[in-house]
Amino acid sequence: MFEGIAVHPPTHLVFLPVLWGLAAALAATILLRIRFNREWQLTLWTAYRIQRVWQRLSDESSRTGGTITSHFMGILTWGIAGGVYAIAQFESGLPDSNSIWQGIGDGCLFGIGTLVIRSIGAGLGGWMTLEYAAVQKGLEIDRHMRNWLLWVVTLLVFLFVIKNQGYQEEIAPFQFLCIVWWIWLILKWGRQLQIVFRSRLHFGWGIAYICTLEIGPSLILYWEILKA
């Protein structure tokens, strides 16, 4: 407080752990672009040319390294969101750097958990419906779309930091991240429905799969965040 006016610390210092996460996101993106062109191209096609993803040739499938890089980017998205969430929990005083790092770590662990659960759920869904190819397509689309989510989240946080030179508790980007997350979920569910129709799956199985393994867990997570 200086002569009755609150002095706000630099936002980039408060968000420093999160900014390291943004730097990791940039490095992973560069790696994906330079080393794994197939995964990079499939990621781009998922956004604006989905038919090309479904009609690709066998030799256009992504390499293992590209798949692992995309999974890392998806986990990193949760880590960045966890760091921003940790900052939003401080209602008074400055956020503690260790708490932010812990939020990033917890977010990454949560991302790993969702990846494992989704893989198990997909395996169970493929076993129940005998539509392994369609389930694998769903997992692939989910992986590619997570790269896009990381890029949007990175851009959103970066713009917040540079446009708010002084950190203010009443202005937090976490609410905007939630909005972006919901928009992304709706788009992803739309892609999943496209797979159901394109693969001519039984509509009931498709809806049951999306509601049980997609919509249900997302709603539970959202309400748990609101209660925190």
Features:
228 residues; 9 helices
Task: Describe the protein's architecture and organization.
This protein has helices at residues 11-14, 16-35, 37-48, 50-54, 64-88, 97-129, 132-163, 174-198, 203-227. With 228 residues, the chain is mainly alpha-helical. Helix 6 packs antiparallel against helix 7 (132-163).
| Structural class estimated from helices and strands | mainly alpha
The total strand number stands at: 0
How can the largest sheet be summarized?
none
The helix count comes to: 9
The string of secondary-structure elements, in order, is HHHHHHHHH
Quote the average pLDDT.
Answer: 81
| Shape call | globular
The N- to C-terminal Cα distance equals: 30 Å
Poorly predicted runs are: none
Q: Give the % helix.
A: over 70%
Strand content: under 5%
Rg on CA atoms, Å: 19 Å
Secondary structure layout plus pairing:
Layout: H1 11-14, H2 16-35, H3 37-48, H4 50-54, H5 64-88, H6 97-129, H7 132-163, H8 174-198, H9 203-227
In short:
The protein is an all-alpha fold and 228 residues long.
